[in-house]
Predict the structure.
Amino acid sequence: NKNSESNTIEDKFAQLDELLAKMEDETLPLEESFKLYNQGLELVKDCNDRIEKVEKELTILDEEGDDYDVF
């Protein structure tokens, strides 16, 4: 999904917050809860993949001796 690729990690976290808020609704049908749960898992996986990619890029930069500020 190209649209999901263009969203930032911050956007993904905001989407997770929205899913959590929906899941806290006690009137939500069980099937809908499972659907939202699975969507949340996909968002978390995407965030983890993106974070790992950035960590690898930082490691490569560090190995090349380039200067960069982490903070």
About this structure: The helical segments are 2-6, 9-23, 30-64.
